[in-house]
Design a protein that fits this description.
The chain has about 200 residues and is of the alpha/beta class. It is about 35% helix and about 20% strand. The protein contains eight helices and seven strands; from the N terminus they run βααβααααβαβαβββ.
Length: about 200
């Protein structure tokens, strides 16, 4: 394990968005601003398009879009466009979740999250179940999406391709803060800058 210069070891965690804790934001407002995309397959009824339509109706989503510089109201055409950027046939967004392959389901979940245009995305291994071309498309789309990113990866080359700061998660501490591509071992977290 090598510790980058200028790095810090953090043993206490405080999560803030725009200087406020999740408690200060309140659960609904926080979830409209910080979107988590898990590595595990989503087991939901309906289709990805159904999930997107339902979440888009939440009052906190509507309020956040009204109060921000969000590009446009949530729409199915936006969902289709994001799906395409992830090399996912937009028609798959209208199929039941259980009919999608693992890689399709992972990209569909990511497309839903990105289409909601949250200020911050937490993504856990978003390219783990993907072939090289789909993984590269996901990297490009996330790097350009405009959201702040906290990206967990085991792919040692990924931080160098997508940029940001790299943190190593070791038992009892978070070590790092160096630029993408630093050495280390353990589960990796890459904090991308978002935007482009």
């Amino acid at each position: 394990f090598s510790k980058p210069q200028n790095s810090k070891t953090h043993t206490q965690n405080t999560l803030l968005l725009d200087g406020l804790t999740p408690e200060a934001w309140g659960p609904a407002a926080w979830r409209s601003r910080v979107c988590y995309v898990p590595q595990s397959r989503l087991r939901l009824p309906g289709s990805p398009a159904d999930l997107f339509a339902e979440v888009s109706k939440f009052a906190a989503q509507k309020e956040r879009r009204a109060d921000s510089s969000s590009s446009s109201p949530a729409s199915s055409s936006l969902l289709d466009s994001v799906a395409s950027s992830l090399l996912l046939d937009p028609q798959l967004m209208h199929r039941p979740w259980e009919t999608l392959s693992g890689g399709q389901a992972a990209r569909a979940a990511l497309a839903v999250a990105m289409s909601l245009d949250p200020p911050f995305l937490l993504v856990d291994e978003p390219t783990a179940a993907l072939d090289a071309s789909a993984a590269a498309a996901v990297e490009r789309a996330l790097a350009r999406c405009g959201s702040g990113l906290l990206w967990v990866t085991h792919d040692e080359g990924q931080p160098g391709r997508v940029g940001g700061r790299v943190y190593d998660l070791v038992p009892g501490a978070v070590v790092g803060g160096g630029s993408g591509g630093s050495g280390g071992s353990g589960r990796r977290g890459s904090e991308g800058e978002g935007g482009g």
